[in-house]
Every structure is written in C-alpha cells, then in structure tokens.
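From the methods appendix. Each design record in this collection lists the tokenized structure first, followed by the designed amino acid sequence. Records were kept in a plain field format so they could be parsed without special tools. The example shown here is representative of the layout used throughout.

RECORD:
FOLD TOKENS (141 positions):
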C-alpha cells in the first residue's frame, strides 16, 4: 500500500469528530507544505510490536545523534491519541520555544518541547497552529 493510501486509511479509521479534524489538519499541512515528503509510521517496531500511536509525517528533518550518526525523520507529525490529537514539531533546539512563543496564543493545548496536544480543534486557534507549521517549514534542516 502506498503512503497516501495508508494515511487516508488511518484517518478514516478514526471516529468522529476526530476523523474530520484529522482530515482538516492533513489538508491544512499539505496546503502549507505542498511539496513535502509524506510519511506514515504505523507505530510498530521491527518485530511488529506496537510501541507508539501511528503518525502521519510531513517534510524532512535530519536528526543528528551524539555519536555522529544521522537519521531522516519528518518535520511535522500528527497523531490521534486517546484524548485528542497530537502535533509533533521536530527540529527545534530550544525546548521552551513552542510554549513561550505560541502557548498563550494557541488556546487550550498542552505544549511540551516538541508536542502540541489538544482535545479538539475547537479548543485551539487553528491560525496559530498554521503559524507554527509555517515557521517549521521555513526551518529546513
């Protein structure tokens, strides 16, 4: 199955209203990052064991490890979780940046060093989330 089909199948397996909200986020990110590489991570390790929620990824970020090795990963990721939706923002060195820059503007969301988590799109200002995505898209690594 190609990645586009895996992504759509993942979105379609969500119950409403999460399905519609994931679809809206997917379309918004594609609009902001039209030429970005698409990723779909099914949440399973090499042995087929579930280790995380499935993720849809957009763009390319190079992770640099302390031992000098590198790994390609996505810049922006979205994932459904038991209480709502998580947006993963990769490649920000300053772990306080997201919360300090967007925390007061985004609405009712939990923000960590690289994750914005919320229950429903109604709880956040989608324009601020799009601002985050635009910022990360401009920070190509």
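DESIGN:
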């Amino acid at each position: 199955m190609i990645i586009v089909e895996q992504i759509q199948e993942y979105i379609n397996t969500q119950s409403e209203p999460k399905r519609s909200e994931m679809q809206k986020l997917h379309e918004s990110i594609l609009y902001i990052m039209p030429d970005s590489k698409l990723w779909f991570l099914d949440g399973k390790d090499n042995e087929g064991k579930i280790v995380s929620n499935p993720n849809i990824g957009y763009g390319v970020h190079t992770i640099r490890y302390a031992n000098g090795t590198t790994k390609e990963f996505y810049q922006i990721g979205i994932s459904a979780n038991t209480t709502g939706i998580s947006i993963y923002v990769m490649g920000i060195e300053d772990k306080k940046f997201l919360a300090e820059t967007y925390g007061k503007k985004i609405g009712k969301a939990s923000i960590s060093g690289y994750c914005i988590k919320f229950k429903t799109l109604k709880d956040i200002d989608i324009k601020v989330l799009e601002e985050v995505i635009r910022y990360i898209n401009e920070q190509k690594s």
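APPENDIX NOTE: The CA atoms of residues 5 and 21 lie 18 Å apart.
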